[in-house]
Recover the amino acids of this structure.
């Protein structure tokens, strides 16, 4: 049996795993070094190999390893050389968006578990190649979608599985984050992200909201994304911010921005459910992932921290989600709170990385598998296509090739999202 199909039954949560796992990191920008910092605090994880094209970023990573009191890491500029090491079991990929899957494919071909950071993909063919490679090699690929391990998201998932919302009808989600300052300064920082805003127009960052919604709706295990339609607003926010804050001589005040300020995407699922996904990153606003789960028995909404359960909540009235979260706290978060929450993004980074590491240590499938990785990230390409055609629906590829109809749950372990 291939290791991607094996099932582990040890459901204990422990800070320290059963054995030491050796990881390599490719990409040492701000995100990569943040993940490295979290990994270096794990006593059962070694990071003996680092890779980046830039000498200054590579040195910062090497300095981190030394400051943590760990054995000196080897440095590489070519990720293929890192992948050639026999001791490396898994690779954390935190490079520029359109290189994630290229490196993930090479990692799987080298027999290394691939852990890819989130971000827009280059093409649907690359998604297909990712799936084909994992199927042919038996090596897992996990999208490191940390929001699937958020405290609220896991509590809501627990409630969904317990049937509190009844039959699910509709989900809403998104990435609503004022990124104007960071994007406008990206050119000065040699960062790639702003170029997606200058050249592309679609939902370029779908998975933070979509990942948790997909797990609530059993996507790729009994359900499937069928079609998608996207519409984009005009683009004003990014350039206006640059004019107001950087002065007329800054290059960002003279560029044309392709990316609309608001992109709304509607996905229809095989089970009849709908998902409304929103990208909103170039206008003033507080942060939100716009979570909403609605079924025949109730509704949860992130933005006002509220919930209504028929027969339990006062009629036609909202309740605070706080007491429900306490009652339906996911078992993983109960133990995480007892252990002491750690890692970036309120602990989500830590749990997501532990899910990846736990899978390597037990040689089992990852809780976010290659089919999830392909389907969730394909939204960025499909959205761009739909926007370019005036909002016309586009079909979703079935990356499982029909297996979604009867796929069984993934491995039973503390980090399962089934």
């Amino acid at each position: 049996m291939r290791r991607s199909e094996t099932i582990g039954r040890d459901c204990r949560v422990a800070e320290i795993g059963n054995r030491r796992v050796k990881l390599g990191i490719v990409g040492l920008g701000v995100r990569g070094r943040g993940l490295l910092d979290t990994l270096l605090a794990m006593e059962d994880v070694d990071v003996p190999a680092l890779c980046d094209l830039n000498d200054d970023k590579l040195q910062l990573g090497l300095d981190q390893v030394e400051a943590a009191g760990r054995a000196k890491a080897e440095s590489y500029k070519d990720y293929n050389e890192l992948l050639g090491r026999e001791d490396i079991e898994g690779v954390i990929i935190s490079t520029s968006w359109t290189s994630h899957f290229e490196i993930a494919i090479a990692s799987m071909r080298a027999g290394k578990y691939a852990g890819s950071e989130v971000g827009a993909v280059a093409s649907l063919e690359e998604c297909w190649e990712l799936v084909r490679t994992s199927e042919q090699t038996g090596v897992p690929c996990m999208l490191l979608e940390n929001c699937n391990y958020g405290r609220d998201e896991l509590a809501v998932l627990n409630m969904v599985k317990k049937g509190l919302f009844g039959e699910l009808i509709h989900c809403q989600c998104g990435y609503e984050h004022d990124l104007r300052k960071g994007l406008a300064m990206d050119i000065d920082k040699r960062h790639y992200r702003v170029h997606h805003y200058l050249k592309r127009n679609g939902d370029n960052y779908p998975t933070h909201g979509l990942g948790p919604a997909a797990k609530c709706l059993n996507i790729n295990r009994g359900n499937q994304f069928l079609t998608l339609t996207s519409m984009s607003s005009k683009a004003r926010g990014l350039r206006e911010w640059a004019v107001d804050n950087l002065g007329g001589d800054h290059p960002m005040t003279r560029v044309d921005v392709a990316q609309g300020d608001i992109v709304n995407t509607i996905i229809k699922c095989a089970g009849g459910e709908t998902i409304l996904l929103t990208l909103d990153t170039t206008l003033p606003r507080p942060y939100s992932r716009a979570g909403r789960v609605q079924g025949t028995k109730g509704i949860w909404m992130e933005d006002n921290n509220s919930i209504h359960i028929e027969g339990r909540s006062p009629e036609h009235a909202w309740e605070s989600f706080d007491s429900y979260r306490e009652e339906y706290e996911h078992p993983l978060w109960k133990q995480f709170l007892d252990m002491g929450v750690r890692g970036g993004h309120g602990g989500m980074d830590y749990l997501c990385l532990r899910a990846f590491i736990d899978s390597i240590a037990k040689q089992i499938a990852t809780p976010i598998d290659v089919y999830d990785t392909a389907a969730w990230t394909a939204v960025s390409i499909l959205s761009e296509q739909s926007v370019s055609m005036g909002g016309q629906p586009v079909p979703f590829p079935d990356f499982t090739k029909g297996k979604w109809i009867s796929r069984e749950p993934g491995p039973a372990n503390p980090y399962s999202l089934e």
Notes: The radius of gyration is 21 Å.
